[in-house]
Every structure is written in C-alpha cells, then in structure tokens.
Amino acid sequence: MAHTRIKICGITRVEDAQAAVACGVDALGLVFYERSPRAVTIGRATEIARVVPPFVSLVALFVNETRDVIERVLSAVPVDVLQFHGEETASFCEQFRRPWMKALRVRQGTDLASAYEDYRNARAVLLDSWQEGTPGGTGKTFDWSLAGNEPPLPMVLAGGLNPGNVGDAIGQLSPAAVDVSGGVEASPGIKDAEKIAQFVAAVRAA
Questions:
Q1: Looking at domain 5-205, which CATH architecture does it have?
Q2: In sequence order, which ranges of 58-108 are alpha helices (DSSP H)?
Q3: pTM score
Q4: Do residues 22 and 43 make contact, with C-beta atoms less than 8 angstroms apart?
Q5: 111-168: per-residue pLDDT in tens?
C-alpha cells in the first residue's frame, strides 16, 4: 500500500506546529476563515511558518474569500498549497499560481463524478462531511462508501477522523492523505501533542 500522507489542520500556535512536525506529519493547515475557531491572522501564520522546516508543506485554507485577501496572505506567508472550502469555481482556484485542492462536502446524492470533472486540474480533492452552514471542521464522519472506489484525482480524506478510526478509513479507501483537526485537539484550535502522536502512529500502522 502506498504511503499515506498526514495533514494536521487548524494550527493556531507555534508549539502545536512544532509538536506536529516532531511527530513526522507531512503538512500543516492554516485557516484563514474568520468564523472558524481555528482562524489565524497573517501575523500569527507568519510566526508559525518560521518554525516549519523544509519539506513540510504549509496549506492555506480559504472559504469563499476574495482574490485580494488571498493575494495578501500569499505575499506574507510562504504557502505551498491552497485549499478551497467554499463554492469557488475551478477558474478562481487556478489563478493564484499555486498547487491547490478543492474540498467537497459529501452526503447522499452528492455528484462526485461531476465535481471531479469540474476540478480536474486540482492537485487533489478533499472529501469532507456535509453539514448545513458549516464548510468544514464538523468533527463528523460521512458514509465512506459514498467516496467510490477509484477517484480520478488523489483523494484527501477528512471529516471526523481520530486515532481510533483513521486506520479503518485507510483500510477502506486507501486515500492519498488524511486530514485531521478536531480529532487531535484538547479544545477547538488547541492541539493535543499526545493525540497527534497517536494519530500518526495509527496511520503508520495502517
């Protein structure tokens, strides 16, 4: 089985970034969405970026944000990958000259085939749980059977993952990467170093 990459999203503190890096994660997510309890300012994101070593990717998450705001973030923070969690079109996502991935919120009836075609130039698609009025970070899993067997783009699996269920998720879907936020937290926006270590160990074991 291919190596499953690990992203810890919703990093808000330097010490949480350092703990995740020490555990060997592949990517850290910074949330630029003011309504999220895990939102960071450009200033805080810059502080976090300073402690991230080479070859650990910084992912910037946006939700229906304006081009000007995104450009402002990119001019100040060394972002490697963009993650779009709103209703952004493919043409909007493509304009920033960065690798990007599109989050798709999954529920019964979601037309993933059409979405894969619409966002075919994405580096990956991120499958998350659908919840009314909530673009992500729900802490809930979705019915993994709805993801299909062989998506045409690399799949990043999110939505309610934790050390106890991520092994089953990998066994069922073989995602290119897994993305966790609330499942490794002590409280919203505050990560738990021991939970991060447990999550990474569970992915490696799977």
A1: Alpha-Beta Barrel (3.20)
A2: 67-76, 90-94
A3: 0.93
A4: no
A5: 888 999 999 999 999 999 866 556 555 667 888 888 876 788 999 999 999 999 999 9
